[in-house]
Design a protein that fits this description.
Largest sheet: 5 strands, parallel
Strand order of the largest sheet: 1-3-5-7-9
Mean pLDDT: 94
Distance between the termini: 34 Å
Low-confidence stretches: none
Number of helices: 0
Radius of gyration: 13 Å
Amino acid sequence: NLSGRLPSSFGQITALEALWLYSNQLSGSLPTEWGQMTSLTALSLYQNNLSGRLPASYGQIKDMEILRLYSNQLTGSLPSEWSQMTSLTELDTSDNFLSGRLPSSFGQITA
């Protein structure tokens, strides 16, 4: 099992297409710098101890298809910027502490 915080330096790996770090003991917040990983199509961080708000910067990852963040301790609401992930086919944020309304801009996702 991996533990510790997610390194913000991963944001510099712009050619990375998939990252699976699920079912570990990772903690801390989601690094805003990861929004620079614009080649990312799949990110699975579920079943960890991640906390904090969802970074608006992830909306820059236009090719994101699968984003699994369930079973953490994430708070806040879904950023409206995430509707810019126009290739998104799977988004799972269940079993967190999210609140608020689903942004109306999500109705514009055509994937």
